[in-house]
Amino acid sequence: MVATLVVTALAVALGQSWGRDDQRAATAPAPRAVTPTASVVLNGTDDAFIQLLIPMNEGALALIDHLDTRPAGTDPSLRDLLGEIREAHQAELRDLRGLLAAGNVPESNIHEGHQMPGMVTDVGLAQVRDAPDAEVPSRATALIRAHLAQTVVLCRGERNAGGSPELKALAGRIEQARAAELASLDSRPATAKAAPAR
Q: Alpha carbon of 177 to those of 6, 69, 88, 91: distances in Å?
């Protein structure tokens, strides 16, 4: 019930634009991290997008970090791809936090403890930690695929309803990156593809 209400609230936020008083701006050169140099105005959709994508990226990074502790023989193709995803996600976090700072908006994990679509939660991470080595690639792939796909949805919402040109441009770049990552994930050998995590 709580998760449903949160998802509904986020959908409303991503479908509307609320203005904020004058706030700070940033430039967002691709593909490197944003270095705020001026002020930017973030509306309610912009804020909701950033405050959700930050913990989503952090959850995915926690999963990737855990996979590094598993046996070296665990699906090298997945490990290589996740290394690329890690680098991109870390750069995105710098970009997103740079825009929050440029907009004079404090970071707040309003979704902490919620079962948000596409978010690697503590429960999902624990299931991977407890899984036998042979099941880790399929479980991890299912979680990463859901994360990447949901981020595409969120980026489209930001591009359609966001107010900040800088953030909308960043969302477009993230959406393209996620689409490429999904394609790479799905082009791996059939034996390495995911079964849904339980």
A: 26, 26, 8, 12
Check: CB of residue 78 under 8 Å from CB of residue 188: yes
Q: What does pTM read for this prediction?
A: 0.76
| 3-state SS, residue 162 | coil
Question: How many other CB atoms sit within 10 Å of the CB of residue 124?
Answer: 21
Q: What is the per-residue burial (b if ≥16 Cβ within 10 Å, else e) of 75-88?
A: beebbebbeebbeb
Token pair listed for 60: 């995915």
Residue 61 to residue 57: CA distance in whole angstroms:
6
Q: Which residues contact 180 (CB under 8 A, 6 or more apart)?
A: none
CATH of domain 1-7+76-198: 1.20.1260.10
Instruction: Kindly indicate the confidence band of residue 23, based on its pLDDT and cuts at 50, 70 and 90.
Output: very low
Please report which residue ranges of the chain form alpha helices under DSSP H.
Answer: 2-15, 44-67, 76-102, 122-130, 136-161, 165-186
Instruction: Give residue-wise pLDDT tens across range 145-189.
Output: 999 999 999 999 999 999 999 999 999 999 999 999 999 999 987
Cβ atoms of 45 and 105 closer than 8 Å: no
Q: Which of 128-137, 143-152, 188-197 has the highest mean pLDDT?
A: 143-152
Residue type at 173 in one-letter notation: R
